[in-house]
Amino acid sequence: MRLAVVSDIHGNSFALEAVLEDIARQGVDATVNLGDTLSGPIDPRRTGDLLLEMNAATVRGNHDRYLVETGVFELGAVDRFALAQLDPRHVVWLESLPATRVVEGEVFLCHGTPRDDNAVWLDNFWTARSTTLPDEASVTAKAEGFDYPVLLCGHTHLERSVRLRDGRMVVNPGSVGLQTVHGSPDARYAIVEKRDGKWSVTQRVLGYDHEAAARRAEENGFPHWREALTTGWGGPEGLF
């Protein structure tokens, strides 16, 4: 079994198209999506069209939930923009997404952690620019009760894989559409593969036309996204 794993696209159709082209060359059996799909100032509608066409197994992210559960005047500026760009069919799709799901009985999908789409698992993302791995006890505790060989999460936009002592693998593929504190604007996704009964992961890093993405964000009224989109050095503070 060979699965492509995407997450945190954030409406960046330019990055998503590059990733989908690369996935098509990798010989995967399926693609799964860990959420935060459309909330971004670039091209939410085009991103939604691509994802509906792809029909990947998808879970909701915290921003997906905000779009369908939060009053429009309570949303942040980026989420308000994204919602205004969407067709009804995109919203219906977002409303249908589960918080978690299991693929092929072995691969567990969530956005943040199994119990909270707005919590972090493998990185202390929200502590300024820290990308430090939390302690072992914290990482292991969040996996308790989820006895699948592969546990997939996103949310932090930082790719990492951890092997628990019992052999289970926790994988964050990083972000397709928005790099922060990386020092690189390149799109990221992962491939998880079972071979001879053992699971492994390959992280993929792809260049794409990030200047075009930044120009589109500026045209849509969000110039403060430029640094993160074009350099990857920008932090998450103030983006949404």
UniProtKB/TrEMBL annotation:
**Residue ranges occupied by any Calcineurin-like phosphoesterase domain in the UniProt entry:** 1-193
Signal peptide positions on this chain: none
Gene3D superfamilies in UniProt: 3.60.21.10
GO MF annotation: an example? phosphatase activity
Q: Which GO terms describe its cellular component?
A: cytoplasm
Known InterPro entries for this protein?
Ap4A_hydrolase, Calcineurin-like_PHP_lpxH, Metallo-depent_PP-like, Pesterase_MJ0912
Return the similarity comment. Answer: Belongs to the metallophosphoesterase superfamily. YfcE family.
Q: What name goes with this protein? A: Metallophosphoesterase family protein
